[in-house]
Design a protein that fits this description.
It contains eight helices and eight strands; from the N terminus they run βαβαβαβαβαβαβαβα. The protein is of the alpha/beta class. It has two domains: 140 residues, Rossmann fold (3-Layer(aba) Sandwich), CATH 3.40.50.12500; 105 residues, Rossmann fold (3-Layer(aba) Sandwich), CATH 3.40.50.12500. Helix 5 links the parallel strand 5 and strand 6. Helix 1 packs across helix 8, helix 4 packs across helix 8 and helix 6 crosses helix 7. Bound molecules: 1-(2,5-dioxo-2,5-dihydro-1H-imidazol-4-yl)urea.
């Protein structure tokens, strides 16, 4: 099977980190392809960044209609339900996948994310996903996404300290890493703290493999049915759904490039 990973931000180096984390856990028969969004923000850290990322995300799915499943590799899970409307293949968000995985291995978990403003987005997801009973707290280290890789940000040490606080203060039994750019930190933190540390990229890949293995597709009954064909105006004109296609809806031929 092939799982197509989409980094909905436009930073290629981050896509490489994400793809590496995915390939480390993928089963022998699973091929991981990875794409960086062609439009939108260099990092997604707020509601506006998220909204602007959705067209690039849909474009990335449209370009790979043959994938067996898709993973949206950004912790805000931007455009998750829109993507599920657009294709019949399973679509996994990394926040959703990580929180569910954490709830299987601990009665309570903490999320450790990047910026303070991003913390609110994660809190909204906790509630939307029905995870409020399992998530004890969402914490932020106040490091921008693109600074995670910069040694001067001391990201590793600061994230580790926040995870220690989650264990001591929140009494959490597991940690959910709240950014796709933290995908390479799982082992580092787990080795030091000896509790389950969940990277959503890895969790989403394994859940995607399970769903494909079960032969499950996204339901096309009700609100996740393919988008209705209709007129779209302005800069979205090229994204007007034309009706059902081969796994994904056909977009208008006048698509703006
Ligand atoms: C993210 C992420 O995973 N990628 C990105 O650009 N922003 N999320 C976050 N919580 O900082």
């Amino acid at each position: 099977m092939r799982i197509h990973l989409i980094n909905p931000n436009t930073t290629e180096t981050m896509t490489n980190t994400i793809a590496e984390a995915a390939r480390l856990v993928a089963a022998a028969g699973t091929e991981i392809s990875a794409a960086t969004s062609k439009s939108g923000a260099a990092s997604i850290e707020g509601h506006y960044d998220e909204a602007m990322s959705v067209v690039g995300l849909i474009e990335a799915i449209r370009e790979e209609p043959a994938a067996d499943a898709y993973v949206i590799a950004c912790f805000g899970d931007p455009g998750l339900l829109a993507a599920r409307e657009f294709t019949a293949a399973p679509v996994l968000g990394i926040a959703e996948a990580a929180m569910h995985a954490a709830s299987f291995v601990a009665t309570g978990f903490s999320v450790v994310t990047t910026l303070e403003r991003t913390r609110v987005i994660a809190e909204h997801l906790v509630r939307n996903y029905g995870m409020a009973q399992h998530c004890r707290r969402v914490r932020a280290v106040d490091i921008p996404v693109l600074a995670l890789d910069d040694p001067s940000s001391m990201a590793r040490a600061r994230i580790l300290t926040e995870c220690e606080a989650a264990i001591a203060e929140d009494k959490s039994g597991a940690i959910v890493l709240g950014c796709a750019g933290m995908a390479d930190l799982t082992k580092y933190i787990e080795d030091r703290l000896q509790i389950p540390v969940i990277d959503g990229v890895a969790a989403a890949v394994k859940f995607a493999e399970a769903l494909v293995g079960l032969g499950l597709k996204t339901s096309k009954r009700g609100d996740l049915a393919f988008p209705l064909p209709k007129i779209y105006r302005g800069i979205t004109a090229g994204y007007a759904p034309q009706g059902e296609g081969d796994g994904a809806v056909q977009l208008s031929a006048s698509r703006i490039r």
